[in-house]
Amino acid sequence: xxxxxxxxxxxxxxxxxxxxxxxxxxxxxxxxxxxxxxxxxxxxxxxxxxxxxxxxxxxxxxxxxxxxxxxxxxxxxxxxxxxxxxxxxxxxxxxxxxxxxxxxxxxxxxxxxxxxxxxxxxxxxxxxxxxxxxxxxxxxxxxxxxxxxxxxxxxxxxxxxxx
Amino acid sequence: xxxxxxxxxxxxxxxxxxxxxxxxxxxxxxxxxxxxxxxxxxxxxxxxxxxxxxxxxxxxxxxxxxxxxxxxxxxxxxxxxxxxxxxxxxxxxxxxxxxxxxxxxxxxxxxxxxxxxxxxxxxxxxxxxxxxxxxxxxxxxxxxxxxxxxxxxxxxxxxxxxxxxxxxxxxxxxxxxxxxxxxxxxxxxxxxxxxxxxxxxxxxxxxxxxxxxxxxxxxxxxxxxxxxxxxxxxxxxxxxxxxxxxxxxxxxxxxxxxxxxxxxxxxxxxxxxxxxxxxxxxxxxxxxxxxxxxxxxxxxxxxxxxxxxxxxxxxxxxxxxxxxxxxxxxxxxxxxxxxxxxxxxxxxxxxxxxxxxxxxxxxxxxxxxxxxxxxxxxxxxxxxxxxxxxxxxxxxxxxxxxxxxxxxxxxxxxxxxx
Lengths: 163, 418
Prior knowledge:
A: alpha/beta; globular; B: 2 domains
């Protein structure tokens, strides 16, 4: 399913400071949106999407917000826009953060992302929604994150794709 | 073509001339990760390296919750301590990361990565100091490099003389009101103009610190005589390049002019940093408060405590209010001690915490319960930030916070400043 969120969802809402004291990703998954949307951890399923408005992931730099959503099984976060540190953290974690007009997606819509064609297919509404996916994010995602990328390809290869 | 100061700093660290929009890999002068973000940097670090690139250029402060308030936090700190010992990096425990970096490490023209969103603070000294997550910090610790898209710059040109009782915090709150939480996303905010030139470093750090709330990649004030004085006062004279400023033909995304001559004290209402109102208007609502927090990387330097001290001279504090002060660093603490403030505050029944982040992020030292109201000099009033998601956080200058501690409700400080 699609978890719908409004504008300016900050990382304090995703992994609140006083719960965010662990380096265990599975512990983090249990506290995701713990106060803001308590039903999230009970009902979230592998392959679900986060659908949000503007500036998703603003506030604290805590990478735990990304780790938590990824560990919950979120397949991609689709938002009108992202806050920059959160976006960088998604690139590094190998979690898709995709910008699109999310007003065209509702909770129960069946959606599919075509990364190559850079569109989201909303099967329920029978529309395709253009998206923006950073080529860097796409590349790193193939390796499951920047750390696996660096281990396999090395820093020299990373420098090549940046410059 | 002329360059902005941000483009100049990126160019110097990339080894070639670069402009907004270019992708670069740069050398770094300093990497910071603290007692929460460093914990998540360790495993990725050891995946790709054995030893840090330069242990003298890595800074690990324990500030977010130190001394540890619970077993989980103690566990995180133990993990980081082990890493720091293995790598030969000292851990500091005597202040907020951004304050310590400003006092001891950041020089004009530096390029610094910090695993903390308020990293733009150091831009008050004319450096580019950029916030990232733990994995970026791990890679930077391993390689001494970072990758960036050189950002566009918005120049904010501020003119006018602030009235008595109005401070840099009020200026940045009014800017936040105008920009909103996304208005600076991916950009550098460059502050200039006569008002900023007259600001001391403490005030400039307040501007650059709170710029993080608008999503900026960095915020900066070109270094000048004030910077010189500050660096000398902090025992590290530094001869910076006088050309370290934006060229007259530099390309800005936008130049915004504002005049602050008629600005009154401002306050951000929960839970948004751009929900900003004049304090005098809110005062009429007689909003009763439970806690006042004077602290954080935004506002607890000695200049802030000077204001608080002078405001409380002839007044007792409201006993219904828990008033908490956390000096931003040991240096600030010692300055306050030397000026007699610590004794003065203690006699006013103020709770004085050790230098660090204090209750700003709701982990220790002043956690709020349901429906409690706090006036805080920090930078975030998000839902649940300081404890219960039902608590309400108002953000103000130290003067407004101090005035509210006297009356027990949100109060314009100007009536106490004659």
